[in-house]
Amino acid sequence: MFGRKKDQAPDLQAAPAPFEQIGRSKDPQSAKGMPTPSRKEQEAARKRPLVPNDRAAAKVAARDARREEQARMRRAMDTGEERFLPVRDKGPQKRYARDFVDARFSLGEYVMFVALAIVLLTVVIPSTNGSQIYIFVLFWIMVAGVAIDAWFMSRKLKRQLIEKFKSVDSGVVWYGTMRSLQFRRLRLPKPMVKRGEWPT
């Protein structure tokens, strides 16, 4: 028993060796070749702002970028350039629908002007005169005609889209129908075809 305690004595003296090795491994220059950042430096790095310090310059740059994007979008509305068009106007089927609508004559183009004329007539003509009834009858006949024309146009547009693209994307027929109710010169994107130039 006494002999075993004497044998273990050297082991206890050799125990600190790993601690010395760990202490040497923590030397900043030993493994990485560069000093480990201090805690103060690490905290300063974490506190670095995520946005530029010059916020006024950042706002000016963002505003200029928005203006440039809007200018490109306005040019696309005039030229029909696909990549700069708004999302609602993008896609080959919507372009086909625009060309199809712009190539035909639609009653809906003039419904706003007829409505304005009827309002002016009701102001000019006395309410005691029975002719106002005929004016409103004429207006509702016009509305019915526009609805029928739009219905036939939408059915033909759907057939054409299926024939060309084998399917119809959601909302394309409605997109073309709403365009047919706008005055031709006020349509956006602007018409790229003349009347009678049907898309192929």
The helix-strand sequence is HHHHHHHH
Number of helices: 8
Give Rg in angstroms: 39 Å
Low-confidence stretches at least 5 residues in length (pLDDT < 50)? 5-31
Mean pLDDT: 80
Instruction: Tell me the number of strands.
Output: 0
Beta content? under 5%
Percentage of residues in helical conformation: 55-70%
How would you sum up this structure, described in words?
The protein contains eight helices and no strands. The protein has helices at residues 2-14, 16-25, 39-46, 55-79, 92-102, 111-124, 131-165, 172-180. Helix 5 (92-102) crosses helix 7 (131-165), helix 5 (92-102) runs parallel beside helix 8 and helix 7 runs antiparallel to helix 8. Helix content is 62%, strand content 0%. The chain is an all-alpha fold. Residues 5-31 have low confidence and may be disordered.
Concise overview:
With 200 residues, the chain is mainly alpha-helical.
Name the descriptors:
200 residues, mainly alpha
What is the element layout, followed by pairings?
Layout: H1 2-14, H2 16-25, H3 39-46, H4 55-79, H5 92-102, H6 111-124, H7 131-165, H8 172-180
